[in-house]
């Protein structure tokens, strides 16, 4: 089954909000989305908040810039993004993949993103090469798309 509507990985969302090495590709990707729905989960939103807090703790962002990014992110979410709920079944599916494939470099958060994408029939758009590789190794390459 081919998935068309994108489910946004945290790395793409971060690069859209904070200038970094992935921003050019993220902005190019975003400009091609037109009016198509773009999905993210509450898990994506939590991950973004955690990464931004880490950037602040490391001194990469000051508190004023952090506050501004949060305001921009909230406005972007309201105006352009759609939220998908994370269900208990998503956590169970992620856990199942982690148990079945302990030899694969599958991170728990990535397993959760894949489970959400699988359940919702969305395609996880990411710039994370490790996630792309492990999805392929698990036979889940139809769930992901490189940005």
In words, what does this structure look like?
- The protein has one domain (6-146): Rossmann fold (3-Layer(aba) Sandwich).
- Strands 1-4-5 form a 3-stranded parallel sheet. The protein has a two-stranded parallel ribbon with strand order 2-3.
- It is α/β, with parallel strands linked by helices.
- The model has no long low-confidence stretch (mean pLDDT 95).
- Helix 1 (10-17) crosses helix 2, helix 1 packs across helix 3 (42-58) and helix 5 (88-100) crosses helix 6 (108-120).
- The longest helix is centred in the middle third of the chain and has 18 residues, at 63-80.
- Strand 4, helix 7 and strand 5 (144-146) form a beta-alpha-beta unit.
- It has 7 helices and 5 strands; from the N terminus they run βααβααβααβαβ.
- 59% of the residues lie in helices and 12% in strands.
Outline of the structure:
With 147 residues, the chain is α/β, with parallel strands linked by helices. The chain has helices at residues 10-17, 23-31, 42-58, 63-80, 88-100, 108-120, 129-137; strands spanning 6-8, 38-41, 81-84, 123-126, 144-146.
């Amino acid at each position: 089954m081919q998935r068309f509507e994108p489910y946004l990985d945290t790395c793409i969302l971060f690069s859209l909000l904070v200038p970094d090495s992935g921003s050019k590709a993220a902005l190019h990707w975003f400009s091609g989305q037109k009016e198509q729905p773009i999905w993210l989960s509450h898990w994506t939103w939590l991950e973004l908040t955690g990464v931004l807090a880490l950037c602040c703790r490391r001194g990469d962002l000051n508190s004023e810039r952090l506050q501004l990014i949060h305001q921009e992110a909230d406005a972007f979410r309201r105006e352009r993004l759609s939220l998908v709920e994370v269900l208990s079944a998503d956590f169970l599916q992620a856990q199942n993949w982690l148990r079945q494939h302990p030899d694969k470099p599958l991170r728990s958060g990535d397993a959760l993103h894949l489970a959400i994408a699988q359940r919702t029939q969305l395609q996880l758009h990411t710039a994370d090469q490790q996630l792309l590789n492990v999805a392929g190794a698990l036979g889940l390459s139809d769930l992901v798309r490189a940005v």
